[in-house]
Design a protein that fits this description.
By secondary structure, this protein is mainly alpha-helical. Among the domains are: 4-96 and 105-143, Collagenase (Catalytic Domain) (3-Layer(aba) Sandwich); 255-355, no CATH class. It is 55% helix and 5% strand. It has helices spanning 17-31, 73-91, 106-109, 111-138, 153-168, 201-215, 228-275, 283-299, 304-315, 335-355; strands at residues 4-8, 38-42, 55-58, 63-67. β3 (55-58) and β4 (63-67) form a beta hairpin. Residues 316-337 have low confidence and may be disordered.
Length: 356
């Protein structure tokens, strides 16, 4: 026997009523109760809290109340399954002698009611899950069916009231007139001379311009004059040649600058050797001294000799005389200096290119 459903809400249950009845039949067979409860679907405008009421069961009247506003159909049916477990508990007498033992915290303070609530959550949710999986298996097309949303009674009332008020105050409009056939467009001026008076003036003007350009004879180059296309190509090639020459000049200038720096370094090195003949200088120390001298000479107008002396003092070079013949760094072969100088040439080149 189906469950009696009283829809006292604005929710349209036509979509889920058969599902509710099928779930009820499944639960009745599983739990084995004989008497059917009454299901009341309720709307409550004041029940807007995120933790508001969802459902409850009255053991005296054997009625299940479910609040349906804003809830998913599956959530409504899950609450129904939960309350059906309480209905089965009531029929087994488990609600006897608990009058006055309820309250807001009954599930935490009353061991008996807590046990009943555990059973409702476990059996109710599992019953709903088993029913859902079985129903989907036997009705595989249900997942592909288009959901039909019909207007609720409240929306229908609002629409009817709105129409009546518009007619009463003269705001109603016959929308059928908006669907009448459009009047035929007037003829446009045939400015392009093709005989078509239905095309817009803007398109006709564009066609006229295109037609005029096609009819206009192309200008031929005079005798001895370079054609426009060839002239453009020559200018492009000339521009490329100028850019290539500028790049070559830049490379030559960089090479000349590097050569000049090398000459300055050699001159300073010879000057150091002549001014301080007894100093022992290795290649790295010599190059560092030359760097200091060049930098200082660029910053202060002092003599190179003074700058060289300060550099010697800065690097604490041993001024003990020694034979150039015995010093491998001062001999004719200075292979170590070659790599060192090459590194400085690369750094100088980068600096020149950066400052250009």
């Amino acid at each position: 026997m189906p469950c009696k459903i009283n829809n006292n809400s604005d929710y349209n249950i036509s979509e889920i009523e058969n599902l509710i009845q099928d779930l009820f039949s499944f639960s009745q067979n599983r739990f084995g109760f004989k008497e059917e409860p009454v299901l009341n679907l309720i709307s409550d405008d004041n029940n807007t809290s995120p933790l508001g009421k969802t459902a409850h069961y009255d053991p005296n009247s054997m009625e299940i109340a479910i609040y349906v506003d804003g809830r998913h159909p599956k959530d409504i049916m899950r609450s129904f399954s939960h309350e059906l477990v309480h209905h089965n508990q009531n029929l087994k007498g488990e609600f006897a002698n608990i009058v006055g033992q309820g309250g807001s915290n009954y599930a935490q303070t009353n061991p008996h009611l807590r046990k009943m609530e555990k059973e409702a959550y476990l059996k109710g949710n599992m019953c709903f899950r088993d029913w859902e999986d079985g129903y989907k298996s036997s009705n595989p097309n249900i997942l592909n069916e288009r959901r039909i949303y019909k207007m609720s009674i409240k929306d229908w009332k609002d629409k009817e009231l709105n129409l009546l008020l518009n007619e009463k105050w003269g705001f109603s409009m016959n929308l059928d007139k908006l669907n009448e056939a459009k009047e035929k467009k007037p003829d446009f001026a045939d400015i392009d001379g093709d005989g078509n008076k239905t095309e817009p003036v803007s398109k006709a003007a564009k066609d006229k311009k295109t037609k005029g350009e096609d009819d206009k004879p192309k200008k031929k180059a005079k005798k001895g004059e370079v054609p426009a296309g060839l002239k453009k190509h020559q200018e492009k090639q000339k521009k490329k040649q100028v850019m290539k020459e500028q790049e070559e000049d830049k490379t030559t200038e960089v090479a000349a600058e590097l050569t000049r720096i090398d000459d300055i370094r050699k001159a300073i090195q010879q000057g150091l050797a002549s001014q301080f003949p007894g100093a022992v200088l290795d290649n790295e120390a010599t190059q560092k001294i030359i760097d200091v001298v060049l930098d200082a000479a660029a910053k202060a107008p002092t003599s190179l000799k003074t700058q060289a002396k300060n550099a010697l003092d800065h690097y604490q070079v041993d001024a003990t005389p020694t034979s150039r013949k015995d010093d491998p760094d001062q001999g004719g072969s200075q292979g170590g200096a070659t790599d060192f100088n090459e590194s400085r040439r690369r750094r100088a080149k980068k600096k020149i290119l950066k400052n250009r």
